[in-house]
Design brief:
It is a single chain. By secondary structure, this protein is mainly α. It has 9 helices and no strands. Helix 2 crosses helix 6. The longest helix has 28 residues. It is globular, with a radius of gyration of 17 Å.
Amino acid sequence: MKKYLAEMIGTFVLTLMGCGAAVFAGIGLGTTGYGISTLGVAFAFGLSVIAMAYTIGNISGCHINPAITFGVWASGRMSGKEAGGYMVFQTIGAIIASAVIYFLVHSGNVAGIEAIFNDTTTTGANSFLPGNLVPAFVAEFIFTFIFVLVVLGTTDIKKGAGAFAGLAIGLTLVLVHIACIPITGTSVNPARSIGPAIFACIEGNCTPLSQLWLFIVAPLCGALLSAALWKGLASDKN
């Protein structure tokens, strides 16, 4: 249970800080003077991962992402039961974080806030433009593949980066966001997409919820490929 709670807290922090940065200080704030650009949002997500990696890494491994958990399970590093528990609590953490963002948006003096994700929601939800389904799927698949491959490689017991793994993983997430934000808002994390999509629909915009399947399926497929590739690369066989 400590591992599950750690994953819930870690995913809560990731979603709150990353999506919160996009909503409250993102590109769409116009003349308020608080815009931080795509780079700023990317660093908000990446720095959240680094902070949590060195906070809960020794407890749960700091997956805080169902795609990472799926990749770790597929590579044989954890049981299916434990992986399922991780995913459930990661999703709960993301939903709680999205509830906090929703409360802040609708209860304070923040009228006129626009999110950077297609300017359609104040929750930081992922979505893609009509006709861009294939590019969106390919982007989420490829960038999740890269991200999870870095996670598996840097955390490998024999071939990993040791204490520097958290830093490498967080900075990789920054790079992924810089490249992918213009396409989908960047998910590479089903839990991070589920929470904001639910509250976007509560606001009256159910497009992110109707497109949510892509932000679940594509990252999981990318993670599966990462696991298969890393098992081959890490093997002692030539």
